[in-house]
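Researcher: Structure prediction, please.
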Amino acid sequence: MEFFALEWFDLIVVALGGVVVQLLTTVHILYTKDEVRSAIAWCAVVWLTSFFGVMVYLLFGISRIRRRAVAIRQRRGLAPRGGSLADPEGQNLAEITPDAPYRWLAHDRLAGRVAGTELTSGNTITPYEGGRAAYEAMATAINEAEHTVALTTYIFQADQAGRKIITALVRAKERGVDVKVLVDAVGNMYGLRPVSSLLRRHGIDVATFNPARLSWRLAFFNLRTHRKLLIIDGTKGFAGGMNIRKHHLEGAEGKRRVRDTHFGLIGPIVTQMTEAFADDWLFSSKHQLDESLWLPKVTPVSGGVAARSVPDGPDEPQQKTAMIIESALASARERVQIITPYFLPEQALLAALKQAALRGVTIDILLPLKSNLPLFSMAAMVGAKQLIEAGCRVFLSPAPFDHSKLMIVDSAWTLFGSSNWDARSLKLNFEFNIECYDEKFAAQMTRWMKPRYEAAAPVSLQDIKNRRGSHRVLGRIMWLASPYL
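Model: Predicted structure follows.
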């Protein structure tokens, strides 16, 4: 009897201990989560799945990366990034384009305060459609480098696409150019041969972003860098959404496997790109770049594009990209064009799209007919239904899979970069986007978009209703998990 009494006592102690842990976890959720839906969802996970739910929350629900970023910056004598939302130093749209409509002057004010970066003038931006054109331009730029090369990307594979870039990096290193490469820990493992090891064997300075080790760092291994930046001598740059891998090249039959777009940039915006890379390099390698070498004075180009960088990530106090997109939608009066490979926007963005459509703005959203992640496409149709009901137009583009990320508003404002329209990009990933205030550039990108829309098929409410039952069910399940995908 005494044995059974002790056994029951031990079980009661364990059960009470589990409840205490769940209560403490719930308190942490209530004090740290800013969104009601997120807090409710995590509380449900913790209480419905007990110990397993607590472990999942510890791994995926806590963003310790902000505290780590602040600590590293302080050790290097740098001020932590804050959320004061003050006007940045430097130019604004009223000074660059005094006759700009008031709604864009107001949007520029918001974007400057949210992004914390000034609006630069005198930039040249060149779009590259497809990997062959982009990789050729990038390799040429690296071969012409004289002082520094900085490269950061999510996926960098040592295949027929990556080898061209690797060869150029090695040659630059042999010429005495200071070359630094930052690869994401998860993206680095996409190929059979991690590119980081290959580059290190050639003496190139490589850092890995947020590697998942068997330590407390596992608690935020879900946070990745999705930025794609190449900077040459601090004066020439490349940015967009294109990884470095053979999927962006034509296949053996000469057909594209993936359609994508990248951009070449010259002008003061490149300095903001370098500053973002320097921040990530400091975070990953614990070393600070020499500003006298890496941040030279950049001369604006006469008559160039006005542009601002929007570096974003979970270490930032605001959801910068989402807030700037919502403001641009509120500024729209005529037409909004969106191309994105993954479309799982949260409620605030959905509401902004619907409100713009209900005001009479034409909202055109182009999504891939067949995604490389089919479940994402199924979930996207859940949100598409309510958008179509509000008057938005959704189109599905045929193969090849379109990985481009682009937004144009009223042929006046353009956003491009690495962010998708989903919670992972807008909350969890480190992203880099560029907004442009220039009618000529917007018109150029509108012409570039036109054949894609013409080849796409519009989606009707009947099309959504006629989907296979299994697709509708799976789509709803994925939609429920969309805040964490």
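Model: The chain has 18 helices and 19 strands.
Researcher: Thanks, that helps.
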